[in-house]
Amino acid sequence: MADSKKKYKFNATSKQAWADSGVNFLKGSKVGSASGYVVAGGVALAIPHRMPRVQTAPSGLARFQGKTEYSDQFRDRQYCYCSMPNKPLRAYSPLAPRSRLAVEDPPIPFKSASSIRFGGGLHNDKHRFVTTHQSFFTGEPCDLRSNPGILSQHATFRRRQRES
Question: Theoretical Cys-Cys bridge with 28: which of 9, 40, 75, 138, CB 3.0 to 4.6 Å?
Answer without folding.
Answer: 9
